Amino acid sequence: MNKLSKKIFIITLISAMIISLTACANKADKKQESTDEKNKNELKKAYSAYIDVLKENEKDIKGYDWQQEINGSRLNYLPDGEGHGGIDRQVAISDINGDEIPELLFMKKTDNQYVAELSIYTYEDGKAKEIKYSIPDESGEMKFQDAQVAAGTSYVIYKGKEKNTLYAFNSIGDINWQYKIYKFNINGSEMKLSKVIKDRFIGDYGKSIDEYKIDGKDVSVSEGAKAFKDSFDELEKSLIYSGREGEDKDCSIWLKFKPDDAISMSYEEAIKKLTK
């Protein structure tokens, strides 16, 4: 093959390779566009399904009216029958199972006007599906709750740094306090409790003691305190919370985020976000 023929051959080969690579790139772009459009349509359908869920629960979501800021400064008790003047950030929208479609989480008042509970929905098989879960309680299995009794409940529901984990911290009490952390692992619409950490703080006549348990077993103060700290360190994103004045001095989780760091929002804000 003479030099001219070699040049023509090389140029032809390079041209063919460029055309082939361009064609592959165009196919990849079209495939990506198709995937993006499909995901966009699924997200739109999921949001539409979530709007229906919110509308079905509107009264009870808005009925949860004693939620507080972290320092408790935004809970103003109003005359009987007019609510409590708490903040309205009962709803969160976040992907907690890793499928790239956000879940819908919200706190709503139960039949007991002094109790609110956490509901979680995911989008599966073309419809909104409630994620079933339970936590152990002295009275049996129940949902995660905020109870307006004694000094009231403080809580933070947050995503963990570990993939597909959700944590729920709460404290309730008066002279004596109960601090609890529930860790959940989530797979699709399955949510299973994987760890329970408890601290019973007893204060009496100037003396105090902490009694720690992990998964029902007594542990030392050092082990229990470390388990709480490690769980607080897992906070990746705060979803929904309700604080009490002064609790940042007792529970380090309140030092892990600021009110505006949480992605919770009001009912109206959630409807607006899902309508986009």
Q: Can you offer a commentary on this structure?
A:
The protein has 276 residues and is α+β, with helices and mostly antiparallel strands. It contains four helices and 14 strands. It has a seven-stranded antiparallel beta sheet with strand order 13-12-11-10-9-8-14, with helices on one face. Strand 3 (115-124) and strand 4 (127-130) form a beta hairpin. Helix 1 runs antiparallel to helix 4. The longest helix has 54 residues, at 3-56. The radius of gyration is 26 Å and the shape is elongated.
What are the salient characteristics of this protein?
single chain; 276 residues; alpha+beta; seven-stranded antiparallel beta sheet; five-stranded antiparallel beta sheet; 14 strands
Helix content: 25-40%
Element-by-element helix/strand order:
HHEEEEEEEEEEEEEHEH
- Major beta sheet, strand line-up: 13-12-11-10-9-8-14
What's the tally of helices?
4
Taking all Cα atoms into account, the compactness measure Rg is 26 Å
| Structural class by sheet pairing and helices | alpha+beta
Morphology: elongated
- Uncertain stretches of 5 or more adjacent residues: 31-35
The largest β sheet comes out as: 7 strands, antiparallel
Tell me the quaternary state: single chain
